Amino acid sequence: MLKLARYLKYFKKEVTIGPFFKFLEAVFELIVPLVMASIIDIGIKNRDSTYVLQRGGIILLLGFMGLIFAIICQYSAARASQGFGTMVRNDLYKHINTLSHGELDAFGTDTLITILTNDINQMQLAVAMLIRLVVRAPFLVIGAVVMSMILDLRLSLIFLIVAPLVSLVIYIIMKLSVPYYRVRQRMLDRVSRITRENLSGARVIRAFSKQDHEIRRFNEANNDVADIAINVGKISAFLNPATFAILNVAILAILWFGGIRVDLGSLTQGEVIAFVNYMTQISVALVVVANLVVIFTKASASARRINKVFDTMSSVTEKDKIISDIQSTENQINGVIKDRYDEISNEEEPIVSLNKVSFAYPGSDEYALEDISFDINEGEVIGIIGGTGSGKSTLINLLPRFYDVDKGEIKIKGIPLNQYSFDSLRTFFGIVSQKSVLFSGSVSDNLRFSKKDASLDDIKKAIEIAQAKDFVEKLPEGYASQINQGGRNLSGGQRQRITIARALVRNPRILILDDSSSALDYATDARLREAISKNLEDTTVIMVSQRANSIKNADQIIVLDDGKMVGIGKHDELYRTCNIYREICDSQVS
């Protein structure tokens, strides 16, 4: 938690003012029993109604001032806690976006969502309680003991006996319940994961009539969380009865021994009532302390999870950047970057070059790709084909440096990937992944995601090349038509064509199509390839496909099998010399 305390430096005023005014409220609260004692000992004893009303007015004034101080403290706590949470959430989200695919895979989406929401909310609550109660509760306990000692030292011994006993009860209960709170966070991750899977996979679940199975799975995870809460509740249920039993015995002792002291004339009746009030204040304050322990225990578990994300550094880092002087606009990208790398690169160099590249996913002992070498010249159309799990998608994920290679080297225009900044490297690419990811917003908004200043003419041209014009212009509002989250209001083929158009809008030098026409019929797929060939003559196209027919006219075809390159060449040559390629082709002949 101390690591995250650095964010509180931005709220020094709130962190100072809040506890100070809460301290004043506690001081006024400790004065009230003394005023009440004077009312009993003087006003009521002498039947002096004027005195009672005057002292009653003082109690009302103390209460009103305490209310004002409490409001100031609450406002300061709200500003500090919400500001703290906002800053941590922003920085954490920013940091997550710096992590490579490997680190994101290790954490898992459900865990990161839970950390960004539940864990940071828990930290916000801890900050609010820190300002509101951390000063007040201990001060009330100590202040009540001190005030009782001032009133009567001998009778105050009861306080000195009771406070350790109540503290012992709280310690035992907290020691038993704290471990459950740590387990609960992991259980919430599981509930979040199942919920996300069920909502995103609703169509698959219904297609296989697995609603009841998924409901049972969710109920089991949810019941685990509930069981932990119940177990904690059973333990915590002893807190109030045990605490108040001790305190009620203490109050009886105060009344018993206080009565004796009153008979002896060493104590007044009002002072005995003040003793009882101080004991009540102690009881309430100690219960608050117990609740604070629970809150800070939860916050401590949450802080560890948050810091674990902050402490995780990306395995793919920017270093030794040759090309880093880029700005945000596409004109600067097309101008500055091109001019800069043209100065330091040889135009005769292949646009993409792999030399003995091997790669294994984090945590895996086996290479997903091993000893891959080939060159791609500018303007070529490259086909990549292979069986399921052969490493096709892994290979193209290495080119924009989503992962770093374990062995070998990849170059763009003769420059190693790690000498580019991420921005300058990825402006070379227009990538269409296997899964068509669209965002809520209009068709135009989705296409401008790759080039924010794209004109309507740019968008229309990309839509036409992607063979999406026929259905986009038939939508109710055309290019302004809204797309639901994930493109749920579009078919699979329509989503694929929109994502292809999005990649084309930025006019990339290297277009990567990762099996991105799998949902298209053969005629549309053929028209798409023809349109790309005619309109993107200077663009290097890398096509990953399961269909041999889609890539047979490529300038080069790379054949992968179990992470190894088993063939490279043109269709006719590979059909004669590569058994794997021939088997794929023959299996697809009707």
Task: Provide tags for this entry.
590 residues; alpha/beta; ABC transporter transmembrane region fold; Rossmann fold; 2 domains; six-stranded mixed β-sheet; four-stranded antiparallel β-sheet; 21 helices; 12 strands
Determine the mean pLDDT. 84
Strand content range: 5-15%
CATH architecture of the largest domain: Up-down Bundle
Largest sheet: 6 strands, mixed
Structure description:
The protein has a six-stranded mixed sheet with strand order 6-9-10-3-11-12, with helices on both faces. The two termini are 65 Å apart. The longest helix has 48 residues, at 49-96. The chain folds into two domains: 4-191 and 227-311, ABC transporter transmembrane region fold (Up-down Bundle); 330-413 and 423-587, P-loop containing nucleotide triphosphate hydrolases (Rossmann fold), CATH 3.40.50.300. 62% of the residues lie in helices and 10% in strands. It has helices at residues 12-44, 49-96, 101-107, 109-132, 136-151, 157-200, 202-207, 211-236, 239-263, 269-311, 330-344, 392-398, 422-426, 443-447, 456-465, 469-472, 492-505, 522-535, 548-551, 571-577, 579-587, and strands spanning 352-359, 369-376, 381-386, 407-412, 415-416, 429-432, 441-442, 482-483, 510-514, 540-544, 556-561, 564-569. Strand 11 and strand 12 form a beta hairpin. It is built from 21 helices and twelve strands. With 590 residues, it is of the alpha/beta class. Helix 5 (136-151) runs antiparallel to helix 6, helix 5 (136-151) packs antiparallel against helix 10 and helix 6 packs antiparallel against helix 8. The model is unreliable at 320-338 (pLDDT under 50).
